[in-house]
Inverse folding.
């Protein structure tokens, strides 16, 4: 539930930043001044610069275009309003596209605040690790190569995957 | 007046042009912010680095035998080691003295793990650096990330005199280390990992014999493995970057190894090991399964000196862990991106 609210907040933040960049709204520095806000701000500027200057751009593959198109299809409420107000349509020239591109390509970016669900703690608290069996395998695999730990614990399970 | 316009613009404008284009093409803007230039190193401490290299070389090239103890929190484990160098290279036998009986017989890069409970020999081909070897590389960059202090006063460990070398981290991306190297041979007699709250891990020799006192017969395994099942552990090299993984490493860390390895229950997991020469972390990447056959907990955890952070990225689970501060594993995970490359 909290995660969903967070997600909505982030989505509207993206739209707001897009508007701020086009000087269509007053910048709210307190909203922008977060790691995520700064990142979006920088990314949108970068995208805008690239779209305006051929020198900065590398010709993307058709695959990328296809992915962007698909993302646009899948995200009508954000990136392709069916009846956009004229004024907004005009600014879609750069920033609208920028948002689309950002949505398409940033889809896989690690965003701890809403892609990983409710369990993620916003300001990650240090939890006492429960004796989670599965996690032990990772520690063993790490020590297996680095040899730091209680010397070479082998994760071995008869009939398991190592055969 | 810290207006965001002034705060963000210059950084962007100052970004190298080629870098911008590349980053923009990949649409991975945040990667740019990840790398701050390494701070200028103070005058290097050649003597300390030389000692580290001597310690490392001693561990690989000397004949020695002894028992050492690993200690972390409430865990204490003792291990017997015999290391002999002959005409064919390095031979080593490592026996776990606590817990389940287990032996590791190594001849150069081939390691056989003997599991008497299962009558199984696990055979693995790999190069790895273990105690008493301490370095993952030449150690030439260490002075950039640690302050090295050689102590003049000798200490005594396992009945031998040793010289203390301290490495204090210059930033928060790693812990400190404290070694005591045998005066005579250079072999590390004690290795400690030191966090802000004190010693986190300690590995220390209790007994040690060096040179001609080491009998090569001691290399023979404790069990006759005739008739045991031999299982080859398949470890395949992979390249995560070419698969679209962008894993920005903290300053000083470099990738050591990238492998595809089997874990329990038939899972295939990709593992990248990174190190700054002393500290190390592993990044694990595997397919995300809704079924939940593994404990599905995202978040930051810490156990003793080991910090672990897990999160989901798209259809993958990312697990980062290592003997480093918790913030370090979390930052690495949070800056990691998956941008599958388009194949033209």
């Amino acid at each position: 539930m909290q995660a969903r609210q967070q997600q909505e907040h982030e989505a509207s933040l993206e739209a707001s930043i897009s508007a701020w960049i086009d000087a269509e709204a007053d910048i709210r520095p307190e909203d922008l001044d977060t790691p995520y806000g700064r990142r979006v701000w920088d990314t949108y500027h970068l995208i805008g610069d690239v779209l305006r200057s051929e020198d900065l751009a590398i010709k993307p593959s058709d695959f990328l275009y296809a992915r962007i198109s698909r993302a646009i299809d899948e995200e009508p409420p954000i990136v392709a309003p069916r009846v956009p107000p004229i004024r907004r349509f005009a600014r879609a020239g750069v920033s609208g596209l920028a948002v689309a591109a950002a949505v398409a390509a940033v889809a896989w970016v690690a965003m701890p605040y809403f892609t990983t669900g409710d369990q993620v703690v916003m300001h990650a608290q240090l939890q006492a690790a429960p004796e989670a069996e599965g996690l032990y395998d990772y520690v063993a695999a790490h020590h297996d190569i680095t040899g730091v730990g209680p010397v070479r614990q082998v994760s071995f399970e008869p009939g398991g995957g190592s055969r | 007046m810290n207006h965001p316009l002034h705060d963000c613009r210059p950084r962007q404008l100052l970004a190298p042009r080629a870098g911008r284009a590349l980053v923009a093409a990949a649409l991975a803007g945040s990667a740019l912010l990840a790398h701050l230039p390494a701070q200028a190193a103070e005058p290097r401490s050649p003597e300390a680095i030389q000692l580290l290299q001597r310690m490392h070389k001693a561990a690989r090239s000397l004949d020695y035998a002894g028992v050492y103890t690993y200690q972390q929190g409430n865990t204490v484990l003792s291990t017997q080691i015999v290391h002999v160098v002959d005409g064919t290279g390095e031979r080593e036998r490592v026996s776990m003295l606590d817990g389940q009986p287990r032996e590791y017989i190594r001849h150069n890069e081939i390691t056989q793990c003997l599991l008497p409970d299962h009558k199984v020999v696990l055979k693995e081909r790999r190069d790895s650096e273990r105690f008493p070897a301490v370095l993952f590389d030449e150690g030439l960059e260490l002075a950039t990330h640690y302050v090295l202090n050689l102590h003049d006063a000798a200490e005594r460990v396992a009945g031998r005199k040793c010289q203390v070398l301290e490495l204090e981290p210059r930033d928060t991306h790693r812990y400190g280390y404290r070694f005591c190297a045998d005066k005579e041979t250079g072999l590390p007699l004690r290795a400690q990992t030191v966090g802000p709250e004190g010693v986190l891990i300690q590995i220390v020799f209790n007994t040690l014999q060096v040179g001609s006192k080491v009998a090569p017969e001691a290399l023979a395994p404790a069990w006759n493995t005739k008739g045991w099942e031999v299982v080859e552990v398949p470890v395949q090299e992979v390249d995560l970057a070419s698969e679209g993984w962008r894993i920005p490493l903290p300053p000083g860390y470099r990738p050591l190894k990238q492998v595809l390895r089997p874990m329990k229950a038939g899972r295939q997991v990709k593992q990248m090991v990174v190190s700054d020469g002393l500290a190390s972390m592993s990044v694990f990447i595997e397919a995300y399964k809704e079924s939940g056959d593994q404990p599905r907990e995202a978040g930051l955890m810490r156990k003793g000196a080991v910090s672990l952070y897990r999160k989901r990225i798209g259809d993958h689970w990312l697990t980062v862990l290592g003997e480093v501060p918790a913030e370090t594993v979390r930052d690495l995970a949070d800056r990691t991106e998956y941008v599958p490359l388009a194949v033209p």
